[in-house]
Design brief:
With 132 residues, the chain is mostly beta strands. It is built from 2 helices and 10 strands, in the order βααβββββββββ. GO terms for molecular function: lipid binding.
């Protein structure tokens, strides 16, 4: 298990590929617009492997996820969709599989860096009928 110290308050600084990401996960355009360049403040409270991860959005809305590394937890997406996930620690990064993407978080250069990538989609064709 990694022993990275995540506790702190972090203000949004910038993003890369935001439009492609929100389109890939199907976030409604009004929520995507709300999230664009907004000064989200992420507050992390860490007690060993127990975390409370809160995102404060402009206008007073917050999303809070409480989880323990290695145990299934009830989680909520940016778009208020509820799901269950087991959050892991991999190479000092917190990793969670959200419904449409994999989310990682790490401390790098004193900054909280979060990366969300679409989970791969595999398509197989039917090989039973040799003429296909």
């Amino acid at each position: 298990q990694g022993n990275m110290a995540f506790a702190g308050k972090y203000e949004f600084e910038g993003d890369e590929n935001y439009d492609e990401f929100v389109k890939a996960i199907g976030l409604p355009s009004d929520k995507a617009e709300m999230g664009r360049n907004c000064k989200i403040v992420t507050e992390v409270v860490q007690n060993g492997n127990d975390f409370t991860w809160t995102q404060h959005f402009p206008g007073g809305r917050t999303t809070t996820n409480t989880f323990t590394i290695g145990k299934e937890a009830d989680m909520e997406t940016m778009g208020a969709r509820k799901f269950k996930a087991t959050v892991k620690m991999e190479d000092g990064k917190i990793v969670a599989d959200f419904p449409n993407y994999r989310h990682t978080a790490e401390i790098s250069g004193g900054k909280l860096v979060e990366v969300s990538s679409q989970i791969s989609k595999l398509v197989y064709k039917n090989k039973t009928n040799k003429n296909q």
